[in-house]
Hints:
This protein has 314 residues and is α+β, with helices and mostly antiparallel strands. It is 38% helix and 26% strand. It has ten helices and eleven strands.
Amino acid sequence: MNSIKIFSxxxxxxxxxxxxxxxxxxxxxxxxxxxxxxxxxxIRINKIYGTSLPNDPKKNVVFNALQSLLRKxxxxxxxxxxxxEIELIKNIHPGSGIGSSAASSAGVVxxxxxxxxxxxxxxxxxxxxxxxxxxxxxxxxxxxxxxAIMGGMxxxxxxxxxxxxxxxxxxxxxxxxxxPQIEIKTSDAREIxxxxxxxxxxxxxxxxxxxLVAGLYQENYRLISRSLEDVIVEPIxxxxxxxxxxxxxxxxxIGALGGGISGSGPSVFMLSRGTYVAQKVTEMMNRIYSTxxxxxxxxxxxxNQQGVKWSEIE
Length: 314
Ligand code: HSE
């Protein structure tokens, strides 16, 4: 088998209190990638639908992620006559805050591993995909690529060494997303954050992260709701997103468990218990944004348990 089709999911990073450590995968939207192995060395992106990507390979997430995998493979197997041909269908808009770069990076490294006969394990694939994130945001964070590859909800316990675990997802958890079509660069949204935080804020934050994880395992939606609080990052980034607090307050009033900025924004997400409430929350997001002069898109999705997957090309 030399060619496959890959489906790579959108992801929500941070989950309010878990900056750079917690993330989840969505069922919808998904990128589609056609990947072929060839005997011609090099990585070639032949077609991109839905967006344009930088021509400079050093700024291209797909190139960087796949190149790091290929380099390791060639060291291991001493084979130099391997290359990849890629076609990308970007359904996840770059710069949306729902893991567009992560979907591309995770998708290509996962697919390349399949085509090479699975020489790498999950943690190695996450590490390669993080090289894509390094070019996209200036930091090799794993809170989007980990759920994209592993599915469900994931927790990065440590970056050095890389230690990531999959968390339990309560069955009825749904996600509503609004993507305001404004640009927020992850690198800029990281630049404005404080480099040092107060001990009192840290105490509140790790209390919330611990309780969120406990709430997920207990399927205790009230505890999840109380834990969706961020005293460190959200107060600084919220100003970048039109009507952010209105979205939060009104969505919670009609039953959302809570939510916040998806990754570094501009998307905002809300968690709800069950489809019915999640649909209502998405409608509320639509209603609030329909009064603003900002284009937007909304999604309602369950949590994707499988992560990136592949199929044969018919
Ligand atoms: N954890 C990262 C951040 C996610 O918030 O900067 C970026 O998508």
